[in-house]
Amino acid sequence: MAAFCIQVEGQSVSPQARAIVQTIRDLRTIGLPNFEAGQNGPPARIPGLLRKLNGQLRTLITDTLNDRSRSGVASEQEIIEALRAAGWKEIPSYKWNAYGEISQIRFDAKTGYVPGILVVSTQLWVPCGNTDPDTAIYVFQGGARDWKLVLATDADFDTNGDREENGMQYEVSPPDANGNWYLAIAQAAPACGPTATPPGLRYKILRPGPSPDEPRVLLDRHEPLNERFHPPFRLEVDDDWFAVTKGKQRKLDGEAGISIARYQVNGDELTRMQPLALTPEDFLDE
To answer: Which of 2, 16, 106, 170 is least buried, going by the fewest C-beta atoms within 10 A?
Structure first.
């Protein structure tokens, strides 16, 4: 780590990192809504600033991945160090009192794909962000210092407890016989404030489209979610099917049960498969 820090200190500060730091400073000047006074939504400036911040982070990440002057493989720590060098001072999470704090930057390299796949996700802290995406997911293909962004999407979720998978899960499917894959995302809808809507689950299936920001949407579905279960849902994928398992209250007897929704994936066509159940009562309820 010490050698890495010396290398960063010897480099010029990234203009993209400077721009990100300024946007974060702008967001930190905007206070949180007063929930007790009935303020549920963010101030008018927040959505635009969040989109700006996500776009700036995307540019910094893409440029870092494709910087041919660097040595070694890029990582989330390199992005964090670039922000620190540009003047970003981290705040402990228990002191967050404004929008746009960076909760996480994650690099997730996938194996078994040709060309290689790297999933990068950025998570911002957005209190009551039911209309403002707080997570961006970028799928890159390539290798070494030649990565192409092929799919970009965002999500908005509310973590239930300390484990991230309580709020959102994503998986890249194994490649099929033709080398094609899809991105599956399942996320819990956020709920906050005195007029919050009941918790819900949204899951969607995406394939690369004509541009990174225009993925082909194979499925986008909303369902109720029972938060009594921990974790409240689970996502599973294979090259030709995916499944979402979640807890529910059975309609037949009012007891706790398990629902498993499965879909067959054939190219860009999805077909709902027969339901699975862990108990006879769950199967009858389906």
So the answer is: 2
Across 22-38, average pLDDT: 84
Distance CA 253, CA 194 (A): 30
The residue ranges of every structural domain in the chain are 1-155, 157-286
- The single residue listed with the structure tokens 């027969």 is 274
Contact assessment for residue 21 and residue 87, using Cβ atoms and an 8 Å cutoff? yes
Convert the pLDDT of each residue in 66-91 to its tens digit: 998 877 788 999 999 999 999 999 99
Phi, psi of 48 (to 5 degrees): -65, -40
Q: How far apart are the first and last CA of the chain?
A: 54
% of residues, the chain, pLDDT over 90:
50
Report the percent of the chain where pLDDT is more than 70: 77
Pairing of strands 168-172, 116-125: unpaired
Highest-confidence range of 5-14, 70-79, 116-125, by mean pLDDT? 116-125
For β-strands 216-224 and 183-188, DSSP reports them as unpaired
What value does the CA radius of gyration of the chain take, rounded to a whole number of Å? 21
